[in-house]
Write a structure and sequence with these properties.
Elements (H helix, E strand, L loop, with lengths): L1 H6 L1 H19 L41 H4 L1 E2 L5 E16 L13 E13 L4 E13 L11 E15 L3 E10 L21 E10 L2 E10 L16 E11 L5 E17 L2 E17 L3 E14 L2 E15 L8 E9 L9 E2 L23 E11 L4 E11 L7 E2 L5 E3 L8 E12 L5 E12 L1 H5 L6 E11 L1
Parallel strand pairs: 13-15
Antiparallel strand pairs: 1-2, 2-3, 2-22, 3-4, 4-5, 5-6, 6-7, 7-8, 8-9, 9-10, 10-11, 11-12, 12-13, 13-14, 14-16, 16-17, 17-20, 18-19, 20-21, 21-22
Length: 478
C-alpha cells in the first residue's frame, strides 16, 4: 500500500489540486438567489450529522433563498420528496517531529481530502430513507496513510427510519448504517476532525415522552478499510447502551443525562498487556447555557474485563465558559479540566486505565497527540469574534499522567508510550492558535498552529522531541 501511494503521489496530487480549484471557484457563488417569504421559518444551519437536517419547509417556494435549494427539496408524487447534499474538505497537514521523534519525518507535509454525498427520500411524514457515500484520500504522506486517513469509496451511512407520534410522545426507530454522536461527543463522535468519519451498523431507538428524552442502541463498529466498498462490521467490535435525559432547574438552563453502555473489542493493548476487552461505562452529564455562562460536567466509572483482568476505571470531564456578549469581539473565557484514570499497579489482575471509547480530537486539539487515558489535563482558552465571519481561539493545554505506573495513550486509547522507569508526571504543554473563517454559509476555512513542548516524562522515555503541528483546510457544504 505504501509503495502504491508513493508511486502515484505526483499524478494524484495534481488531480487533487485540480478538483480543489474547481470546488474553490464554486464556493464563492452568492448565497442569495430568491426572496424570503414572510411565513418561512428561520433557515436551519448545516449539521455535522447531515441526517438531522429537515428541508421539507422548502415545499413553500417562497422560502427558497439559496442556489442549492432546488436540490434540497425535490417534490415527488403522493407527498413524497427527495433531498440531496454534500461536503468537500481539502486539508494540508504537517508535523515536525511526529510521534515526539518516533514517527517518519515529513518535512513537506501532505494533503488530505474527504468527499461526502448524501441523499434522503421521505416516503411519508414519518418514514424516510437516508444514504451517504464517503471518499477520503491522502497524498504525499511519508510512511503511507494512517488508519484513519484513507477510504477510497464506501457507504458511510444507509438506514431506514420510522417515527410514531402522539400528543406528548415521539419514538423513532432507525435501522442500518449510521453515524452516532453522544452527549458532548467527547467519547463517542463521528470523528469530523479526522479524515475518515466513523459509523455503526445496527438499530437505534430515540425519542421523547413528556419531559423525558431517551436513546437506546445496539450496534457494531464499522472499521475503516482503505479499499473501495470493503468496510464490514463484525460481532467482535460492538457498542450498545441506553441514555435517559431531561431538563432541570437546579442549574441555569439545566439538562442532565444518565447512561450505561457496553463496548467490546477483539484485541486491545495497554501498558498492562494485550487481550480481548469487554467494557461497561456508567455515567452522568450535566450541561446548559444561559446568556453568559455555558457549562458541561461529565463523570462516570468503567467496569468489565480485559483478558483475565478486571476493569476498574473512572473519569471526570468539565468544560466551562463565560461569554462577554456585549463587549467588543464578544470574548469567551473558557477552561476545560479532565481526568482519565490510569493503571495503579501492573500485573495485579486489575486494569485501571480509562478508555475513551470513540474519542474525538478535541482532547488535545486537531493534532490529536494525547488521549484522555491515564491523563490529567487543564486547558484555559479565550475565543474572540474579530468580525462576524472570523473567529480566533487561543489556548494552552497542559498534560500530566494520572498514574505514574501507567504510560500515555493516543485518542483511540492505544498505548503510545510505555511508563518505562520514569517517575515524572508532566507529559507536556501545548499552546494552540486557531483561526476559523466562514465567508459564506457554505464555506469554512480553518487554520491551526500548535507547539507541543515535551515534558520530563517524554524526555525520560525517549525520544522526547518537541512537536510543531500545522493544518489548514477549506471545506464546502451544501
Amino acid at each position: 500500500m505504501t509503495h502504491r501511494l508513493e508511486s502515484r503521489a505526483g499524478s494524484t496530487r495534481s488531480g487533487a489540486l485540480g478538483r480543489s480549484l474547481a470546488l474553490l471557484l464554486l464556493s464563492w457563488a452568492p448565497d442569495g438567489a430568491f426572496a424570503l417569504g414572510t411565513d418561512c421559518p428561520d433557515r436551519p444551519a448545516y449539521s455535522n450529522l447531515r441526517y438531522e437536517e429537515d428541508w421539507r419547509y422548502l415545499a413553500d417556494a417562497r422560502c427558497a433563498v439559496d442556489h442549492w435549494d432546488r436540490a434540497k427539496y425535490i417534490p415527488l408524487a403522493e407527498g413524497r420528496s427527495l433531498s440531496f447534499g454534500g461536503d468537500a474538505r481539502i486539508r494540508y497537514e504537517r508535523f515536525d517531529n511526529p510521534g515526539f521523534g518516533s514517527g517518519v519525518p515529513d518535512d513537506n507535509g501532505y494533503l488530505l481530502q474527504r468527499y461526502l454525498a448524501h441523499g434522503e427520500l421521505w416516503m411519508t411524514r414519518n418514514v424516510r430513507f437516508f444514504g451517504q457515500l464517503e471518499s477520503s484520500l491522502v497524498n504525499g504522506r511519508n510512511g503511507g496513510p494512517r488508519p484513519t486517513d484513507e477510504n477510497r469509496a464506501d457507504v458511510n451511512q444507509l438506514f431506514a427510519e420510522g417515527t410514531l407520534r402522539s400528543e406528548d410522545s415521539r419514538i423513532t426507530l432507525r435501522l442500518g448504517r449510521q453515524e452516532v454522536e453522544l452527549g458532548s461527543a467527547q467519547f463517542t463522535s463521528a470523528r469530523d476532525g479526522l479524515n475518515d468519519r466513523l459509523s455503526f451498523d445496527g438499530v437505534r431507538a430515540l425519542g421523547e415522552w413528556r419531559d423525558w428524552r431517551f436513546h437506546a442502541m445496539a450496534t457494531r463498529v464499522v472499521p475503516t478499510l482503505p479499499g473501495a466498498f470493503d468496510d464490514r462490521s463484525t460481532p467482535a467490535g460492538t457498542l450498545s447502551g441506553f441514555f435517559l435525559a431531561r431538563n432541570h432547574a437546579l442549574l441555569p438552563a439545566g439538562n442532565a443525562v444518565v447512561y450505561a453502555s457496553r463496548r467490546t473489542r477483539e484485541n486491545t493493548a495497554y501498558a498492562d498487556g494485550v487481550g480481548p476487552e469487554q467494557r461497561y461505562t456508567t455515567g452522568t452529564r450535566w450541561w446548559g447555557r444561559d446568556e453568559h455562562w455555558d457549562y458541561n460536567l461529565e463523570l462516570g466509572a468503567q467496569t468489565g474485563s480485559h483478558g483475565a483482568d478486571d476493569i476498574r476505571a473512572w473519569y471526570v470531564n468539565t468544560d466551562n465558559g463565560w461569554n462577554f456578549r456585549e463587549a467588543q469581539y464578544q470574548p469567551r473565557l473558557g477552561v476545560r479540566f479532565s481526568i482519565g484514570s490510569g493503571d495503579r499497579k501492573l500485573g495485579d489482575g486489575k486494569l485501571g486505565t480509562f478508555s475513551p471509547l470513540f474519542a474525538a480530537t478535541a482532547y488535545s486539539g486537531l493534532s490529536g497527540q494525547i488521549g484522555p487515558s491515564n491523563s490529567i489535563s487543564i486547558a484555559p482558552s479565550v475565543t474572540l469574534r474579530l468580525t462576524p465571519e472570523l473567529q480566533l481561539t487561543a489556548g494552552t493545554s497542559v498534560f500530566w499522567r494520572q498514574s505514574l505506573t501507567d504510560g500515555i495513550y493516543n485518542i483511540a486509547g492505544d498505548i503510545l508510550r510505555q511508563p518505562g522507569s520514569s517517575d515524572a508526571r508532566l507529559v507536556g504543554t501545548q499552546p494552540t492558535l486557531t483561526f476559523t473563517w466562514t465567508p459564506t454559509r457554505h464555506v469554512t476555512v480553518l487554520t491551526t498552529l500548535s507547539y507541543f513542548r515535551a515534558g520530563p516524562f517524554l524526555r525520560e522515555t525517549p525520544p522526547g522531541e518537541n512537536v510543531t503541528y500545522f493544518t489548514s483546510w477549506w471545506a464546502y457544504r451544501f
